[in-house]
Amino acid sequence: MSRNTETVETYLDGFRTGDHAKILSCLTDDIQWTVYGAFQLTGKEAYDAAIDGAGFVGPPRLEVVRMVEQDEVVMAELTGSAIRDTGEEMRMSMAEVFVMRDGLIAERRAWVIELKENDYR
Predict the structure, then answer these.
(1) Number of CB atoms found within 10 A of residue 111's CB
(2) What are the distances in angstroms from CA 16 to CA 4, 64, 72, 120?
(3) What pairs with residue 107 in β-bridges?
């Protein structure tokens, strides 16, 4: 496993456990995070404030379907679920692009699709 892939795995484990320090240790100071259709932010302080997700409680369940790496980019296909503050479970399918710099995540681009009926819809 490459250093970049190890960093992404550590990062995802931090999300699974709600460990802000672990997540932040994987990021550059000037991290850029875009969730298409939802938000974009820059910097560790803003990132830290957004980790738990407004309207959600507890860490999400995340499973890696596949992960590939080319040069300084790691791409991951994920499935998972998160609990809304109403108690409802949100199931999702995600595509993530991690742009790496010196073994840390410098940019994260995410596409999150909520699944309401089955595994693809």
Answers:
(1) 14
(2) 19, 12, 24, 22
(3) 32, 99
Task: Summarize pLDDT for 87-105 with one digit per residue, the tens.
Answer: 999 999 999 999 999 999 9
The model carries a pTM of 0.95
Kindly list the strands in the beta sheet with 104-115, ordered across the sheet, starting from the edge strand earlier in the chain: 39-42, 27-35, 104-115, 89-101, 73-84, 56-70
Closest CA to 8 of 90, 82, 72: 72
Cα distance between residue 98 and residue 46, in whole Å: 18
Whether 86 has a pLDDT exceeding 90, the answer reads yes
Asked if 62 contacts 12 with a C-beta cutoff of 8 angstroms, the reply is yes
Contact by Cβ (8 Å): 44, 27? yes
35-77 pLDDT, tens digit per residue, is 999 999 999 999 999 999 889 999 999 999 999 999 999 999 9
